[in-house]
Amino acid sequence: MINQSMAALGNNRSTIRELFEYGNSRAAVVGRENVFDFSIGNPNVPAPDAVRRAILEETAGDPVALHGYTSAQGAADVRRTLADDLNRRFGTDYTGDCLYLTAGAAAALSCAFQAIACPGDEFIVLAPYFPEYKMFIESGAGAKCVVVPPAVQDFQIDFAALAQALNARTKAIVINSPNNPSGAVYSEQTIRRLAGLLAEKEEQYGHPIYLVSDEPYREIIYDGIEAPFVPQYYENTIVCYSYSKSLSLPGERIGYVLVPPQAADSADLYAAVCGAGRALGYVCAPSLFQRVAARCAGQTSDITVYQTNRDLLYNGLTEMGYRCVKPQGAFYLFPQTLEPDDRAFCERAKKYDLLVVPGTDFGAPGHMRISYCVQTETIRRALPLFKKLAEEYGCK
Amino acid sequence: MINQSMAALGNNRSTIRELFEYGNSRAAVVGRENVFDFSIGNPNVPAPDAVRRAILEETAGDPVALHGYTSAQGAADVRRTLADDLNRRFGTDYTGDCLYLTAGAAAALSCAFQAIACPGDEFIVLAPYFPEYKMFIESGAGAKCVVVPPAVQDFQIDFAALAQALNARTKAIVINSPNNPSGAVYSEQTIRRLAGLLAEKEEQYGHPIYLVSDEPYREIIYDGIEAPFVPQYYENTIVCYSYSKSLSLPGERIGYVLVPPQAADSADLYAAVCGAGRALGYVCAPSLFQRVAARCAGQTSDITVYQTNRDLLYNGLTEMGYRCVKPQGAFYLFPQTLEPDDRAFCERAKKYDLLVVPGTDFGAPGHMRISYCVQTETIRRALPLFKKLAEEYGCK
C-alpha cells in the first residue's frame, strides 16, 4: 500500500551512506581512530572563521527578520551579493535575478532537472558520475538517464562515446568538474570541445541542449590551475552550486541554481526552476545560511590541507603499485582496484577497516573512490594498511 | 523545451506569495507602516531567546561536527530528544527511529505524500485547506486531490460530504488542526468520529487509509483548550510537523515526519519516507537547526501576543458586522467576505492597503483569510480601514 520504489530507495541506501553508517557502527566496536573511513565527502577542514562570525553577527540582529521566510528564490540582497561575487571573479554581468537559492546542490540539481524534463527526454551523465544523479533524473524528474563510459586514461571526456549518446531526445548533459569521484578538472580544451559538439547537435536537432554544470568543488583545485567557468563557453548552461565543500557546510544545505540570461528561454527557465522548487516543497533556502553565504562571498575553507592529503595519498599509493590518474581538484582519489571486481576489492579492504567506495557505483568498474577529506594523520596511519592490502595482491 | 507545468507553477505564484510580494512593492511606495499586510503566515513574535542561546552554544563547538552531514533521517541524538519530548507530552512510546527530520512541513508533506502515493490513488483534503497541498499531491506525488467542501458553520468536518468522497482509491486524508486558514481546532469528538469513519472504510475496502496530520500550529492554541494528539485516536496516522510557527523559524526549514510504530507497514512506510526525501534531493535537514530544535524541545515563542491579536481583531470585526467563526488556534481569522465574490472583495480591500487572501484559494469561497501574526498596533490601525470597507457594503 505504500510506494514500493520509494521504500526501495529508502531501504537500499547508497553504498556511500551505507559505508558511512557501517563506519559509525565499526567505530563503536574498535574505536573511531581505528576506522579509516574514506567513504563520504564530509569536509574535515572546518568552516572558515568568517562563518562563525557571520552567524554571531546575524544572530545579534532581529530574529523575526533573520529567521522569517524569504522570497522563494532567496533574499534579494543575498542574491545580489552572490551575483556581484560571480561578476567580480568571472567578469560576468549577472543580477540577483539570475540566482535561485536552494537547500544545497542536490536541491539545485533536482530543481534544474525537473524544470527542463519533459516526457521522453534523455539526460546524459558522464562516468564516473555522482550516483544520485541517476536517481534525481529518473525517480525525480521522470526522464531517462544515459551513461557515457569513462575516459579512464585521464577522466576527461570520451567524445566519441558522447557523440554516439547524443540524439534528438537529449534534453541535457550533466557535467561535474572538479569531478566527484575522479578529482579530474575539465581543461579549457575539453570544455571548448564539449561546447562545440553540443552547439552542433543543437543545430542538427533544432532545439537547445542544456549543459547542467554541477560545481560544488569549483574552488577546491590544486597546482595553480584554473577551472574554466562553463557559462562563458556555452550559452545554454545551468550552474548548480553548493557551499557544502567550499565553506565546509554540507549539513546546512545552502547553494543555488544560476540561470544565465544568455540561456535559451532564460526567463521561462528561471520560472520553471522556481516552480520545481515549489512543487518539491522547498519553500525557501534556509534563511540564516543565505545570509552567511552572502557575508562569506568569495571566501573558502583552508583547502591546503586537502592538497597535503592528496599528495601524501597519491604518492604513497602509487609507490605501492596502485595505478591512479592524479587528481587536480575536489578531495577524491580514484585509483584502479587491484582486481577487476571492485566490489570484491572494497569488501576485502574492510578487513583492514579501510572504507572505500567501489567505482561501479560511479559507473566506472575497476576503480575505488577514496575521500581524502580526513585528518592527514588518518592517511598516514592508513597507508601501511593499504600496503598490506596491496601485498595480498602480490604488490611488493 | 522546458517543462511548461513547472514554468506555470513558477510564473503563477500562490496568491499568498503574490500578495506578500505586492505588499513589499507597495511598502516601497507608501511606506511599510501604511501597508496592512495580513497575507502571509510569517510569525511576528520573535523566536524565544532559547533559540539564540542554542545557536551561540552550538556555534562555540566544533564546526566540522556542527555543519557536517547528519544521517539522512537526522542526527540520532536529536531524534531521540524530540521523541522523548513527544513521549513526555503525549504519553507515547516513540523512539528516535520514528522520526525523519525534514526541511520544514512542506518537505515533510512532500516526503509523506510521495512515500504512500501509487498510480491511481486519491488523497482527500478538507476545505478550507492550505492551497499548496493540492500541488504537493498532484504535481509532486502524481496522485489525485479530492476536495471535501467546508463545514462553514464551525469549520469542523462535514462528515456526510467526507463519507461521499471516500472510496476504494482513497489512499489518505490530510487534516490540519489547528487549521490554516480557519483557525479551527478539531475537537476530540471530531477526531474520534473521523477515526471511526476511516476505520470502517479501511475494513470495507480492505486496505489502510492513512491520516496525514499536518500540525505546524499544534502549540498555537487558545482559551485553555487541548488539541487531541491524533495518533492516539487512529493508528494509521502520519504526523508532519514544523518548528516554523511554534519557534518562529519559518525561514530555517526545520520539521519532521513522525511514523508511529502502530501505523500499518510502519517499517516500510518509514523507509519510503526516507526514500522520498532522497529522491526529492533533501539529503538531510539543516544541521545547525536540527540541534537548535533539540535544545529548544518543548518550548515555544510567546504566543500570548497572538491571542491578544485574535481577540482584538475578532471583536473588532464582528462588531462592524463581519461574520466569523471564532478561531481557537493558529493565527488566522477566516471571516465571510461582505460580497459573495471573495476575490472582488479582496481586490477592493487593496484600496485601503489591506492585504487579505481570498477564501477561494483555500476551497472556501465567500471568505477571506486574515493572518494576524502582525504587530498588535498594525491591527489597531487597520480596524478603522476594515470599518470603511464594511461601510462600502452598507454596514454601519
TrEMBL record, chains A, B:
Source organism (scientific name): Agathobaculum faecis
Record keywords, A-Z: Aminotransferase, Transferase
PANTHER family (UniProt xref): ASPARTATE AMINOTRANSFERASE YHDR-RELATED (PTHR42691:SF1)
Stored Gene3D superfamilies: Aspartate Aminotransferase, domain 1, Type I PLP-dependent aspartate aminotransferase-like (Major domain)
Family recorded in the similarity comment: Belongs to the class-I pyridoxal-phosphate-dependent aminotransferase family.
Enzyme Commission code: 2.6.1.-
Protein name, UniProt field: Aminotransferase
MF (Gene Ontology): pyridoxal phosphate binding; transaminase activity
Domain called Aminotransferase class I/classII large: residue spans: 34-383
InterPro entries: Aminotransferase_I/II_large, NHTrfase_class1_PyrdxlP-BS, PyrdxlP-dep_Trfase, PyrdxlP-dep_Trfase_major, PyrdxlP-dep_Trfase_small
Required cofactor(s): pyridoxal 5'-phosphate
Pfam families per record: Aminotran_1_2 (PF00155)
Organism domain of life: Bacteria
PROSITE patterns: AA_TRANSFER_CLASS_1
